[in-house]
User: Fold Na+/H+ antiporter from Caenispirillum salinarum AK4.
Amino acid sequence: MLETVHVAILFGAGLVAVSIFTSLLSMRVGAPLLLVFLLMGLVAGEDGLVGVNFDNAPLAYFIGSLALAVILFDSGFGTPIKSFRLAAGPALTLATVGVMLTACLLGVAAHFVMDLPWPQAFLLGAIVSSTDAAAVFFLLRVGGMKLRDRVKSLLEIESGSNDPMAVFLTILLAEVALSGQGFASLDWTLALTVAQQLGIGLVGGFLGGRAMLMLMRRVRLEPMLFPLTVISLALTLFGAVSVVGGSGFLAVYVAGVVAGNADMPNAPTLKRFQAGVTWLAQIVMFLTLGLLATPSQFGAVAVPAIVLAVVLILVARPLAVWLVLLPFKFTGRETLFAAWVGLRGAVSILLAIVPMVAGMEGGQDLFNIAFIIVLVSLVVQGWSIRPVARKLGMMVPSRSGLVERFELELPDEARHELVVYRVSADAAVATGHRVPRWARPSLVVREGRSMTWRQAGKLRAKDYVYIFINPRYVPLLDRLFAKPEGPDLSDTAFFGDFPLAPSATIIDVATTYGLPTPPGLDTTRTLAETFERVFEGRAAPGDRIPIGYAEIIVREVDDEGRLASLGLGLEPQKPASWVLPGWLARIVAPLNRLRGPRYRGS
Assistant:
């Protein structure tokens, strides 16, 4: 018995370690890390090199659910509340209506491609209908891409909140398929069940997050026990909400948002701990689901599964996204990019276990099909997100040269951070600009030697400077120590050729630069008021309004959402080179006219 335990520990810990080291190689070739972890599970499984026979579907579902709850809590904890101000409406609509549309469209395709009965076909559609939070958050946050704020907020909120709808549809359709009566077994309680899942999840998550804050502000714990307690409370909330009939996944995400946007004690320690635990949860979840799969069975369903994956990527997801975002004035580029970032991942594989656990005939085939669809999604979409984002103009040039940033735990309401810069050769301080008193470094590291600011004298390129500063001054430090960075993008190209004051009016700009006044706008309003009205108070860097052959572009927005600076671009971005088929364009033309003037959002 003891020997078996030791072997299990050796195998489990060794597999996690090997997966982590393998990720170093994947970064060199640009492979999505989550795909690497999934493939490592396949390699270790019964058809792989190690040959471990793991077929415990209930245990895999338990491990996956636990890991997903941890991931969603951390995802919510790291989502700023301003993201909801930018994209809550379209994101939540996409997370509900979009999931149902995707499930229906893929279900129709599955019925005709694989000749599945309608309940099983729609069940397969529901299984792969939601985007994967782990995959999306990893690629958009850890992957180092800096996207336009509204698009990033849309994708993050959608991926963090669409799992409840997919879980509900999967369980519901599994019951329909098992009943033997088809859709005749459905009644009016369907809508009530949906409302119960979402309602209890939202309310339970909000109340749970507030309770978590109140409790952690009152208790005095050892610093290292604090993050353990928070994670334990989050998992307790997940279980409690699930037991009373709500969506535990939605509850932990909402609780994370509530706790992460408040003054949580020991927040810096908590964030670092959660980052490590979330990585471990992702690795364990993908490895477990990879172990559960049997690649030797894939051959029987490989061709139709790949066909369905193509339909999902190129038809079902884009059409659902386009229909859902139609009322929200997203541009063609933004809609196309949102459709492309529809990565399927561990959630789809996790839901594919449900038919197996329920003993459904053909459940193993549904699992294998879902697994192949996830592999195709991670390979095709995961590998291409960065070039697609660059091609569609969704990437924003980095305006920060920060190397590292550390939050400090200070008494009372004091807020300071330790920020580290590597001085750029083109930075203001390296070309003779005086360092203001408030920005003087506490430490300078030059060629491996540490010294005070006075000892260092004039700062040089490649110096590392360490500064204690209030976080709101970091954008000012960027102007002193760094230069804009970003592949094939520059500040001028993206943020305009000439600076404009938010207090200027459109007629002032048009007269000064010899531009025609745009139709449908009050030209006597200030630029700030115009952007406020056009973008409904949610303007973000990169948003633009056309004015003749030029564009007025948002450069900076302050912490309160007010426009800080604007730019005038004389070479507007070209529109996306994609159009709807003629017959579909004629059908939706009346809907397009309802949207009014088209402005380029971020």
